[in-house]
Design goal:
The complex is a heterotrimer of chains A (274), B (311) and C (211).
Chain A: H1 6-30, H2 62-97, H3 100-115, H4 118-128, H5 133-143, H6 146-160, H7 163-170, H8 175-212, H9 223-234, H10 240-267
Helix pairs in contact in A: 1-2, 1-10, 2-3, 2-5, 2-6, 2-8, 2-10, 4-5, 5-8, 6-8, 8-9, 8-10, 9-10
Chain B: H1 2-6, E1 9-21, E2 27-40, E3 45-49, H2 56-64, E4 71-79, E5 82-83, H3 86-92, E6 97-100, H4 113-118, H5 126-135, H6 152-165, E7 170-174, H7 182-197, E8 201-206, H8 209-215, E9 218-223, E10 226-232, H9 233-238, H10 246-254, H11 288-292, E11 298-300, E12 303-305
Chain C: E1 2-10, E2 20-28, E3 32-36, H1 43-50, E4 58-63, E5 66-67, E6 76-79, H2 93-98, H3 105-110, H4 127-140, E7 145-149, H5 157-174, E8 177-182, H6 185-191, E9 194-197, E10 202-203
Parallel strand pairs in C: 3-8, 3-9, 6-7, 7-8
Antiparallel strand pairs in C: 1-2, 1-4, 4-5, 9-10
Classes of the chains: A mainly alpha (274), B alpha/beta (311), C alpha/beta (211).
Chain lengths: 274, 311, 211
């Protein structure tokens, strides 16, 4: 990858991701339920031209099921990471600009949330809210804002001490104006990088919670469900039922992670000249 | 060969460019130092004077081989008559060539100042270092502090003493005095003077022309990344008539004690350098030739000047 | 009609030593004053106190007999040593200037600010150019007093002379009060009517040729 400079890589990755997202969404939306309906005549078939990913124990086409599952996972991931990024910005700014006790309380909550393993927290929250999509979404969103909130709090604290903010005040600008014109625009890149970097986490958590049986209901073809079901048949030699859906998930996550990382490096002023 | 022996460091036609992002996805090379000349003999202090953007700080990094990875260096740097290769730079750094850097960022943040300045050499030069600290008005307790506990002025003095303790034959001091009181700055420079009198060489990079005039043997004037004039310091004290380049003359006239009269215009930016002589757009004597051709560096009255007409 | 420091002292907290103690100073409009001292005598602190960036621990800073206004455009504007810190790095320079008020062509011309620069970002210009913008911004805000804290220390002498000549012209034309904080005695003599030596706490007799 060294032959391409960082900006080109980002554009390339973003394009690839866009194609994948769009493709998965379109396919996911367009696939009729019949495409992955049960069919006992074709159960447990290894990959073939008719079924490139093979079929599962109920004879459902795994390619179609994986695509559908991925589109659900991505919806959950995107929504959850967007919500958690918004929470992070609000909480981060509140901590940095609010009274001392506000900062203390927020820091305490962050420590608390970060101290408990995410998986357990997500399970508890989504269970409390009644399982299914809504509970899972809120559960993931509520656990993934902490590190970004910390980052933004630090950023705002540093910004507040910038000379140009003090100058702005002496030029007659009020706090609201300074927030809107100096602070928020500065946080936009952080927001998007944070969002993109949370995205793969959210997808993985969604998959793992569903895998454990606490997430989406089993009738929905989520990746976690597919993997969880394939576990039962792995020992009977049905390797394809886990390998292909798993690979597609990992590929997706890696792609988004790489994009987020490259974007962060570009926006990081210390590596700006590269 | 005789000639080369007499010169400690010789820089010849040095150019430094950086690879930068342009519009969109393209990258372009930005030339920040072009056709730079400089020569330092043992026992002298050469001051490099120039404004920010004239490339004077990059010069230090280029000599030491510590430019960022997106920089390209062309031209020749000779040390004791030998071409400086990256490997030689690594070997000479800190031993033969010492740097007084601009900021505390160059110090190890987790090591107490005293140990750090003593360095790895054995026997530890502790007594000598304490003498240096006293001369620079650094209180006794300084040696037990960590770098972050130093004020700006103290940090500079610590950095200066680090370089003075080495056995280096060339000291490159990059803006060593800001933050120091006048007395401390004078003391630090007096110590550089003593080093030079003892046969070492000092390259003093500074924007403070008054200090340069006070302590240097020769002054190299940088403009837009190139050397426009190198002259004995007496010429700068004597006034514009003794100087060879119109930019040096303009510098002299702009000093508060000499008239405070500026010339118009700005130093051109890397990336939009004019053709021909870099100073031509602001030069009162520029002719058509100046706008077309880069003047060569010429020896004039015991100094060097990059101007067709300087005399 | 004056900017006054009445017996002001400053320290960051009770545990810390005084940075500045019992300082009195008065500057009328139209007057030019230089504060001269080596580093470590609280010149920058005094400059910030006078412009309202810091509040004195003891004593008062008065403008025409009243405390400095807390909101609105401050009639006392401070110019910093490092212009790149006084400008939002993400803003184009036109926006930077407009933060001070309406763009004034005459000021842009006086500083030789080329119009294409207005569309650039701060990192694309040198310190000298940025300092012109900082001074221009303060002038466009309609300041009555200008405090210049080592504003040309990091600049080359030609840029220094360019900027100071414009400031001196503007100050004379608009009858502004001017304080130049500097460690350079030559510069102090050149730009100010009287010189106060903060390290010795006395008016520099040799140079004072009256206000």
């Amino acid at each position: 990858m060294r032959r391409f400079n960082r900006r080109t890589q980002v554009v390339f990755l973003a394009a690839l991701l866009a194609v994948m997202l769009l493709g998965v969404y379109l396919v996911g939306a367009l696939i009729p339920e019949s495409a992955y309906a049960s069919n006992y005549l074709t159960a447990k078939q290894p990959p073939s031209w008719a079924h490139p990913f093979g079929t599962d124990s109920l004879g459902r086409d795994l390619l179609m099921r994986t695509l559908k599952g991925l589109s659900i996972s991505m919806t959950v991931g995107l929504a959850a990471s967007a919500i958690s990024a918004v929470i992070a910005v609000l909480v981060g700014i509140a901590a940095a600009t609010g009274a001392k006790w506000v900062d203390a309380v927020i820091n305490w909550i962050i420590d608390l949330v970060m101290g408990v393993p995410h998986t357990i927290l997500v399970i508890l929250i989504s269970f409390a809210l009644g399982r299914g999509l809504r509970g899972l979404l809120i559960g993931i969103a509520a656990t993934h804002w902490c590190s970004l909130a910390r980052l933004i709090r630090g950023e705002v604290l540093q910004l507040r001490n910038e000379t140009y903010i003090a100058v702005s005040r002496r030029l007659g600008k009020g706090s609201g104006w300074i927030l809107a014109h100096h602070l928020l625009p500065h946080l936009v890149p952080q927001f998007f990088v944070g969002l993109i970097l949370t995205f793969p986490h959210a997808i993985l958590h969604e998959a793992s919670i569903s895998f454990l049986g606490f997430g989406l209901p089993p009738e929905q073809p989520a990746i976690g469900i597919i993997l969880s079901e394939s576990m039962k048949y792995l020992s009977t030699g049905m390797w394809w039922s886990a390998v292909f859906p798993g690979l597609l998930l990992v590929l997706n996550v890696l792609l988004v992670d790489k994009l987020g990382d490259q974007l962060r490096r570009i926006l990081d002023p210390s590596s700006a000249q590269e | 060969m005789e000639q080369k022996q007499e010169t400690l460091l010789e820089i010849h036609d040095l150019s430094v460019s950086f690879r930068m992002y342009g519009e969109g996805l393209s990258q372009k090379d930005l030339q920040v130092i072009s056709n730079l000349h400089l020569r330092i003999r043992p026992g002298e202090i050469v001051a490099v004077a120039g404004s920010s953007g004239s490339g004077k700080s990059l010069l230090a990094s280029a000599i030491l081989g510590i430019l960022p990875s997106n920089a390209t260096v062309k031209g020749h740097v000779h040390f004791r008559g030998q071409e400086l290769t990256p490997q030689m730079q690594r070997e000479l750094r800190g031993k033969e060539i010492a740097l007084v850097p601009q900021s505390v960022a160059y110090l190890d943040p987790l090591m107490r100042v005293g140990r750090q300045v003593d360095g790895a050499s054995k026997p530890r030069p502790t007594q000598q270092r304490r003498r240096l600290f006293r001369r620079l008005e650094l209180p006794e307790r300084t040696e037990n502090l960590y770098p972050f506990q130093l004020s700006g002025g103290m940090a500079r003095r610590v950095l200066v003493s680090t370089a003075l303790l080495t056995e280096a034959s060339l000291i490159i001091a990059d803006e060593p005095t800001p933050g120091m009181s006048l007395e401390q700055a004078l003391e630090a420079l007096k110590m550089f003077r003593e080093m030079a009198d003892g046969g070492k060489s000092v390259l003093l990079i500074t924007h403070d022309i008054d200090l340069a005039f006070e302590f240097a043997d020769r002054v190299a004037v940088f403009y837009a990344g190139t050397t426009v004039e190198i002259a004995p310091v007496e010429d700068f004290r004597a006034g514009p008539e003794a100087l060879r380049h119109p930019y040096s003359q303009a510098l002299w006239r702009a000093l508060p004690q000499n008239g405070f009269v500026p010339i118009d215009g700005f130093q051109p930016y890397a990336g939009s350098l004019p053709q021909g002589c870099l100073f031509a757009p602001r030069c009162p004597h520029a002719t058509e030739q100046c706008h077309r051709q880069t003047p060569p560096i010429r020896e004039v009255r015991g100094g060097e000047v990059r101007c067709f007409y300087g005399a | 009609m004056a900017l006054e420091a009445k017996n002001i002292s400053f320290r960051y907290s009770r545990k810390e030593p005084w940075v500045l103690q019992a300082c009195d100073l008065s500057l009328a409009r139209g007057e030019r004053l230089a504060l001269f001292a080596p580093s470590g005598y609280g010149k920058t602190t005094l400059a910030r106190l006078l412009a309202g960036y810091l509040t004195p621990t003891e004593g008062q800073v008065l403008l025409d007999g009243a405390p400095l206004p807390k909101t609105g455009v401050c009639p006392v504007q401070l110019i910093f040593q490092h212009p790149e810190k006084a400008i939002n790095p993400r803003w184009r320079l036109k926006r930077v200037l407009e933060e001070g008020g309406i763009l004034r062509e005459d000021i842009l011309d006086a500083f030789g600010i080329e119009r294409p620069w207005l569309d650039r970002f701060p990192r694309e210009l040198s310190g000298g150019e940025l300092q012109r913008f900082c001074v221009a911004r303060a002038l466009m805000s309609g300041a009555d007093y200008l405090i210049c804290d080592e504003i040309s220390t990091m600049l080359d002498v030609i840029t220094q002379a360019q900027i100071w000549n414009v400031i001196l012209d503007e100050a004379a034309r608009r009858n502004m009060g001017l304080i130049a904080v500097t460690h350079n005695r030559h510069l102090a003599r050149r730009v100010a009517g009287r010189i106060y030596d903060l390290s010795r706490r006395q008016w520099d007799a040799a140079d004072s040729n009256g206000a």
